[in-house]
Every structure is written in structure tokens, then in C-alpha cells.
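Moderator note: this is an archived Q&A kept for reference. The question asked for a predicted structure of one protein chain; the sequence and the answer are reproduced below.
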Amino acid sequence: MTECVTFMRLLSKKYNLDVHVYPSKEGVVVLKYYNLLKEVKDNFSKLSPEKGPNAPFIAGKIALGTYEFFLIAPATANTVAKMAYGIADSLITNSAAQAMKANVPVYIFPVDQKEGEIMTTLPDGRALKLRIRKEDADNVETLRGMRGINVLSRVHEVKDVVEQHS
């Protein structure tokens, strides 16, 4: 989460982007946990937390062509699984489904991409070893095969997306 926020802040300043942040309800909890909520509020033009699957009404803005692309970063295993199985019952999954219908490119940076163990950093700086499940990695592969979905392997690939749409 920290890497995504920091990188997007740097890109938004470098390319003078108008970044709108629509965190899920749980995303707000994680931003607070990592002490990033104030940074997001201070550095991005719009912060609109999820109130429901269609609130705020991003799907309408996507359909009207307000956004050149829809970026989901980071994407939890839960969000990836829902998208892989066509479930659109949250703000993020519903908006992604609408973007695919409207031919607006969807870029997604899943956190659980390859089966095996990874190291992550907790908010207090300690390292934590996590095991990525085969099922979660398989769902990412399903997304790679979906029309309109572009899976990013590293958060730094967001720079290529921004440059492509600038």
C-alpha cells in the first residue's frame, strides 16, 4: 500500500495528473493502519470512499468517458477473485465491470500474483512472511486472459500506463 501511494503521488506531480482515489471501505481501514490516509487526502484531488457497490457513482463517469482508464492498485486477492468470476458487488468490481463494458481500459496490480512465499513490511517496519495460495495466483492468471483487463506485474508499470495515456 505504501509503495502504491508513494509512487502514484510522484507520478501525479511529474505528469500533472488529476488522480481520483476511490478506496473500498476496507481500503480506508488499511490506509489508516498504514498512516497513509492524510497523505492521500493531501496529495490527490479527490478522495471518495466506497459507500456501496454504486456509490459514489463511478460507473456513470466511466460510461460517460470521464476517465481514460481505470486503475486498481493495489488489488486484494478478494477483489481479484470476484473479478475473475464476474462478481460485481463492490464499488471496485462494479466499476471495473462497467469499464470493460464501455471499452475503458482496466489496469490492475494484484498483490498476490505468484504462488509461494513473499516478504511484506508491516506499518511498524517489521517484516512478515506470507504464503500466496495457488488459488489466488490462478485468479490473477484468469484476469490476464480477460478482454479489457491489463494485469500489472509491478507497481512501477503504472508509469507506462500513465505515459501511454498522456
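Archived answer notes: The chain is about 45% helix and 20% strand.
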